[in-house]
Amino acid sequence: MGQKIGNIGELNMIQATEESIQQIERINNVGSVICTPKTVKLLSQMKIENIGSTIVVEEDWQLIKGLFILDDHYIESASEHSVVFIQGVLLVDNEISVDSLQKCQTEFVVMGAVYTPKHIKGAVQTKIKKITGGIIEFDGKQPFIQSGKIELDEGFLQSLELDENILVNGTLTLSNNVDIDTFYSKINRLDVNGVLFLTKEQQSILGKKITVNGKTVIIPTGYQKIDSKLQLHNRSIKRFKQAAIYTKKPILLAENITREQFQQAFRSIHSLSFIICHESIEDLVYEALDSFETEVFSYQEHYRFIEKENWTKREVELLEPNTTIIVNGQWSIEEEFDEELLNKNIVIELKGTIYTPNESMKHYVQKNIQTQNGSVYSHLKQEDQYDLDNIGELLI
Asked: Pairing with 65, which of 38, 239, 356, 371 sits 20 to 30 Å away (CA)?
């Protein structure tokens, strides 16, 4: 029996064989499959639940992740026909001529964007075999390139020369303290291949200078963006001073946070996720929210936050009375337990999936669910017991 695999960003089947695919029993989700005309037929022999995209390339290919610069040096060195598969950005050097491009033996498959000087855009298009983003032209200076998670603040602007073309491959956040006059003098053009975070005010003023190949997220003006799950107690909350925060992640507030501490910490919260708090500050949390759509889960004494856990009967026995369980992923209860174990004022807020050993256990669990935005099953999901999960790239 082969391996069971959960999620794969990229499945590389360029060199796959009948024997190599037998090592895999099933795959749940694949972002993209790369194969050749010879190996694409093997896909039908594999059990894959979901595939985002399938790219068929020639065998003489090269994979580039991130940024690839096409210049005269590369064209001279690549004397034979090849295919370059780019996950990111293809940047064409502004010194390349049309004659050089006509001599280029390389074809490009671009899962992203192409940036090219305006005067050779047509010649560049003839070398693009497939593209998922756009072909964006620029004039003047070659773009100043940044990759990863970038914050554009005053320090970043001061490091630039005048009238720069900026290319960001990844995520760009415009800081609240960006000076508009400095932005206009330092940046001629800003291109983002990925995700751009900015305020509505910044969008209205700076929008003409910005092009996004990807997603634009509007942050309320004056808000601080929080990128990760925020878990605070009575000491860590002190780092916030009348803050206004924007987040797409859960906020978990410990029972030892006082009403005064919460009021001193936050004046406004814009949450696209949910908040867990003690019932003593629940009213203050609601007052701080700027959206009625944000869910707030309060608890009396204790809470358990579950993203992916497997519990035995012993772990159910150890639950303290007056505990609220927030399931934000997958909770598997692997053994039978006595109904009395949940008769301790246990509340379940369900935003994911619960698996129980049988119908009786399912019934016990369902009686304690207060908010149900998920599912409860009366069997363990064996197929989710993966040998491998969340893999960036798999070569078979």
From this structure: 38
pLDDT at 388 over 70: no
Of the two residues 41 and 389, the one the predictor is more confident about is 41
CA distance 172 to 206: 14
Alpha-carbon span 370 to 360, nearest angstrom: 19
Work out the angle at residue 382's Cα, subtended by the Cα atoms of residues 378 and 385, and round it to the nearest 5 degrees. 130
- Dihedral of CA atoms 204, 205, 208, 214 in degrees, nearest 10, equals -60
CA atoms of 394 and 11, how far apart (whole Å): 5
Q: Closest Cα to residue 91, out of 153, 149, 28, 135?
A: 135
The structure tokens listed for 34 are 């790369």
CA distances from 53 to 39, 110, 111, 195, 298 (A): 15, 13, 10, 21, 42
Q: Which residues of 138-163 are buried (b: 16+ CB within 10 A; e: fewer)?
A: beeebbebbbeebebeeebbeebeee
What does the block give as tokens for 82? 């090849």
Residue type, 263: Q
Percent of the chain with pLDDT over 90: 39
Smallest CA-to-CA distance from 329 within 279, 379, 381 is with 381
Q: Are 281 and 303 in contact (CB under 8 A)?
A: no
CB atoms within 10 A of CB 259: 12
| pLDDT tens, position by position, 55-92 | 777 666 788 888 899 998 888 887 778 888 888 889 99
Adjacent-strand bridge partners of 6:
none
Whole-angstrom CA distances from 110 to 61, 65, 86, 128, 148 are 13, 10, 5, 8, 18
In 3D space, the residue among 195, 247, 244, 246 whose CA is nearest the CA of residue 217 turns out to be 195
Q: Where are the domains of the chain?
A: 3-56, 61-138, 147-219, 224-299, 302-383
Cα angle 270, 157, 177 (rounded to 5 degrees) comes to: 30
Place of tokens 């878990």: 231
